[in-house]
Write a sequence for this structure.
């Protein structure tokens, strides 16, 4: 079994992902289109673990179920990192920029405790 060196950043993670992909000759399959489609598949696999659970049950996963969800979230994150790299998008910067936009679209004073679309607050 291969050991994983210390991974302390998204850049480190991407290096490990790219090394793994290269060792397996998978790059030929990792077009932006395919990665985007697989991101949807992997996200659905996360959601599958919560299908038919009640709200309280969704907060009280067993250790085994939490491990399964963790593995699926890992798949989602790996796909997201690969897709952002293929498109030349700084994932961390994109998230920071999106948070700033959300704060403008959904001012806390108007939206606290509400789950409505931002257009509701602009009318």
């Amino acid at each position: 079994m291969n050991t994983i060196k210390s991974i302390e950043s998204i850049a480190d993670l991407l290096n490990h992902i790219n090394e793994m992909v290269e060792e397996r000759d998978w790059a030929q399959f990792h077009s932006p289109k395919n990665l985007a489609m697989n991101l949807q598949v992997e996200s659905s696999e996360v959601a599958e673990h919560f299908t038919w659970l009640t709200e309280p049950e969704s907060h009280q996963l067993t250790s085994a179920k939490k491990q399964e969800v963790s593995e699926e979230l890992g798949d989602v994150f790996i796909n997201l990192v690969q897709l952002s790299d293929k498109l030349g998008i700084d994932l961390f910067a994109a998230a920071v920029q999106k948070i700033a936009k959300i704060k403008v679209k959904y001012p806390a004073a108007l939206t606290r405790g509400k789950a409505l679309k931002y257009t509701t607050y602009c009318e």
Summary: The chain has a mean pLDDT of 93.
